[in-house]
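User: I'm writing a tutorial on reading structure tokens. Could you give me a worked example: one chain, its sequence, then its tokens, then a sentence or two explaining what the tokens reveal?
Assistant: Sure. Here is the example chain.
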Amino acid sequence: MEKNKIELYQHLKSMAVYLQPNVDETDYELGVDELTKWLTQYNQWFKETVVVNKGYRPYVLYNREVSILGNDIFIVPDKLMELAKSTINNGFAFSITLDIVELFHNYTHLKSLCDDSLLSSVGVTTDNLFVLAKLTSIKDFMRLLINLRRPIGIIGSISTLREYGFLSYESVNSMDITIYPIKSETSNFLEHNSRKSN
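And here are its predicted structure tokens:
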């Protein structure tokens, strides 16, 4: 029975966290202090449960990740960086999945996370490509994302990506980019999760 529990729990090594700023825009609703405390406790529980602390199964500590989803998460950039540092210190990779327009408006903060070696990968939802096209060259912005030198996941409908010539960009075809096609617009995957959390 104990062996079966370990076999099960060893797969509970990564998580997704939905963030949104609190009303005062000083922290997230969940609170970074509470999140980092919980993450530390969870990490300790995980290691004890799968008996890594006794020298067994060190491989289960590989490829662990905390994936951040949300809207307006860069409103409190210091808190986001604090959470990223705690995540790394607990042995997890730290990734972000956001709408492409939000990434465009917050590219400086995104780059800071990469410059400090805190960000492992970037997920990009592309429902709002038409909005980005009014703000800047999509091709130029993709080049900026690629220059972060992080794996990139593109989430969107193939028809929309084709419409904007996204798949023909040389930069898109030359780097570590994975496309996760959807049958229709997600619009908004993140907003949908926001409604569920309220």
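What the tokens reveal: Residues 74 and 80 are 7 Å apart (CA to CA). The longest strand covers residues 93-99.
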